[in-house]
Amino acid sequence: MTVDVAIVGGGLAGITTATLLKAEGKSVAVIESNRVAEGVSGFTTAKITSQHSIIYDRLIHSFGEQKARAYGDANQAAIEQIASLANTFGIDCDFRRSDAFVFTEKEEEVDSFRTEADSARRLGLPAEFLESVPLPFPVKGAVRFSGQASFHPRKYLVALAQRLPGEGSFIFENTRVTGLHGGEPCTVETERGNVYAGHVVVASHFPFNEKLFYALRMYQHRSYVLGLRLNGELPNGMFISTEPTHSIRPHFDEEGGLLLVGGEGHRTGEGGDTVARYRRLEQWATDHFPVRTIEYRWSTQDNKTADGLPYIGRLMPTSEHVFVATGFGGWGMTNSTVSGMLLRDLILGRENPWADVYDPNRMGLEAVSGSAKHIGSVASHFVGDRHADGEIASLRPGEGMIVHSDEGKVAAYRAEDGSIHKLSPACPHMGCFVQWNSAEKSWDCPCHGSRFSIEGEVLEGPAISPLKEFGES
Questions:
Q1: Are residues 142 and 164 in the same domain?
Q2: With contact defined as beta carbons under 8 Å apart, do 461 and 205 qualify?
Q3: Which of 150, 247, 324, 452 could form a disulfide with 262 if both were Cys (CB 3.0 to 4.6 A apart)?
Q4: End of a domain among 305, 322, 347?
Q5: Model pTM?
Q6: Which residue ranges does the record assign to the Rieske domain (predicted)?
């Protein structure tokens, strides 16, 4: 099969890119290892905003005013692009305009918030410093961005995806990509055969095909979310705090609505007792809101780059036809949409004013410093985590651990019925030992964030092959 553009990944970045390219007359093939909108895009709190916590003053100092302005402009444009697509195609996705706030409860941070508001306004963003916000607890200061939005990402994505097949375009779900080769044409290898394309976009969350180039400049970060019913009205707006970070936003439904509260973030594989993280988040929520019931609990995973800005553009300096979109840092609704707009222009040979700030091949001082810290962390895990924590006999039902066994060190899980699942603890991506995640009942790699089920199946990349299985006992 041959198409103009093959897109690896059926999340918001991949589907938006495909939608915009098809509108330009290009044939596209979206290849998704699971189902569309059931990966990272399906677990977001779905804030559509250019307000990415306290960022713009830092961007001005680290990248210069021109690039800081380009980043803000791109994310503001993404809000309107989502609104336009929803309106054009008549998508009922609960799109709702709302103000976005970043707030602090610390007196010592107030001056930096005033500076952030001034810097954001200087860049043309709709920012304002406030001394209070519409929350049921006091804050010391806040920055408000007006005219932002939220939506239901799955409703939006599924509607866009349904419009893609036809006229030489395709969506292949439950199809894992196993290899990628640039060229003319490019070759995308899958479990079900090859797809040939003039261009390829890797929008698979963490790039699977360039182990070192991205693995040394990016790490994965998990956080936890609760869906709460409150006694009383939901707060009006979307909110995020400085460290320790907590995210707050209402989601309106037929029962009145839920309050989505997120927090307790950590590098993947370094969460310790992840069940305790849910408990701490529940405690924070009940301390700050009149919680009636906790209806939902889930977690999500985001990529963070060495310098804090996404990588959108050519995959490698020498890549003429292969592009990437990754590293959204928790702000994937707008940055995924920016990906579609920017990659469309790059593939069509158009100039785009955002290309430099998102260039995946940049390497400034902040990127070098961030990469050095990440490399140190990876090296520490690669060497320091290669020990066993106990014996198989010590495992309790529902517990996993790296243990000694007849096969050597294994990642062992004791099921509720007492049976033992034994896997190799070495992540097939680059060989780091996985760690047990008690809340999700998964094996998580602390080096690059791959996650595996108790049977060893890949839950999240960059790994594309499962953990080796030693059998059940």
A1: no
A2: yes
A3: 247
A4: 305
A5: 0.89
A6: 387-473
Q: Is 10 helix (H, G, I), strand (E, B) or coil?
A: coil
Phi, then psi, of 45 in degrees rounded to 5: -90, -5
Phi, psi of 43 (to 5 degrees): -120, 15
Has residue 67 been placed in a domain? no
Cβ atoms of 250 and 101 closer than 8 Å: no
Nearest to residue 75, comparing CAs of 329, 320, 248, 275? Answer: 329
324 domain residue, yes or no: yes
Same domain, 171 and 319: yes
383 found inside a domain: no
Whether 134 shows a pLDDT value over 80: the answer reads: yes
Structure letter (DSSP) for residue 395: P
CB 155 within 8 A of CB 91: yes
Q: Is residue 51 part of a domain?
A: no
* Residues 25 and 346 sit within 8 Å (Cβ to Cβ): no
Nearest CA-CA partner of 15 in 405, 374, 255, 332: 332
- Whether 286 and 314 map to the same domain: the answer is no
Number of C-beta neighbours around residue 37 at 10 A: 23
CATH number of the domain encompassing residue 428: 2.102.10.10
User: Over the stretch 164-179, which tens digit does the pLDDT of each residue have?
Assistant: 999 999 999 999 999 9
Burial class (CB in 10 A: 0-12, 13-18, 19+), 283: exposed
Range(s) of the domain holding residue 11: 2-44+155-211+307-373
Cα angle at 465 between 161 and 274, to 5 degrees? 80
Q: Could you write out the DSSP letters of every residue in 236-268? A: SSEEEESSSPEEEEEE--TTS-EEEEEEEEEET
Look-up of token digits 């998964």:
442
Are 219 and 449 in contact by the 8 Å Cβ rule? The answer is yes
pLDDT for the residue 391: 81
Instruction: Calculate the alpha carbon distances from 82 to 19, 160, 431 in Å.
Output: 12, 11, 40
Q: Between vectors from CA 451 to CA 309 and to CA 388, what angle results, nearest 5°? A: 120
pLDDT tens per residue, range 74-115:
999 999 999 999 999 999 999 999 999 999 999 999 999 999
Neighbouring C-beta atoms of residue 89, cutoff 10 Å: 14
